[in-house]
Amino acid sequence: MGNWFQQSIIATGRLPLFCFFVMLIVAFMATRINVRLIRAKVGWFRDVNVGEMHIHHVVFGVILMLVGGVTMLVVPPGSQAGTAVAASVFGVGSALVLDEFALILHLHDVYWEEEGRTSVDAVFIAVAVTGLLLMGLRPLTWDYGNLVNPAALIVANLVLAVITLLKGKIWTGMAGLFVPPMLVVGAIRLARPGSPWARWFLAERSPRKLARAIHREERWRRPVIRVKIAFQEFLSGRHDLPSTRRSRRRA
Questions:
Q1: Per-residue pLDDT of the chain (251 residues; tens, 9 = 90+)
Q2: pTM (2 d.p.)
C-alpha cells in the first residue's frame, strides 16, 4: 500500500488532488451527520445563529475555499506538501458549498425538500470527476494517433458534450468528457422527457419520439433513480419536506 501511494500519488504529483478528494468526501459525510443530528435535535447539535439570522454552512465553505485557493496561489512552486494542505482546506470548503448547492441554485432554503437532492447530486458528480482525475484521466483528451486533428477533436467533444447534457444525460455527459465514445452514444440516443432538448425538438415536432422517451423513462430509468435516491438518503438523510417552491407557484 505504501509503495502504491508513493508511486501513484506522490511521485506523479497528485498528492494535492488526493488530499482534496479525501477531504471533500470526509467533510461532506461529517456535514451530513451534523445536519441530521441537528434535525433530530440530538444533544448540543444546533444551527449557527447570529441574533435572528441563521448562518448556513455554505458561508463557511466560501471562506474556506477562498483561504485554500489563495494559499495555493502563494505556496512556492514545487512545494507539494504546502499545496496539499491548501487543497485539503479547499476540499472542506467545496464540500460545505456543494452540500448547499440547491439553496444557491434556487435562492431558497430547500435543503430537506425534494429539490435539495440536487446538492447531493452535485457532490456525487464532484467526487466522480475528481476520482477520474486522480486515476490519471484527463477531460477532452483521447489518443487516436494521427488520425484526428487534436483541436478538431476537442471541438467535436465539446459539441457532443453540450448535446448530451441538453438531452438530460448528466452522468453520461460528465463521464464522456473523459471517455469521448460515451458522448457519441449520449448525443445519438433519445433525450429524457423533461430535458431542454425534448422541449425544443420533441414536444411539437416529434410527439411519437417523445412518447417513446417517456415510456423508456418510466420503464428503465425510474427504477434506477429510485435506487439512487434510496442510496443518497441512506447517506444524507431524507428530503421529505413538502416543496415550498411549488406551493408558491400554485399560489
A1: 678 888 888 888 899 999 999 999 999 999 999 999 999 888 888 888 888 888 999 999 999 999 999 999 999 877 888 999 999 999 999 999 999 999 999 888 899 998 899 999 999 999 999 999 998 888 876 665 666 677 788 888 899 999 999 999 998 998 888 888 899 999 999 999 989 999 999 888 888 898 999 999 998 888 988 998 899 889 889 888 888 766 555 55
A2: 0.84
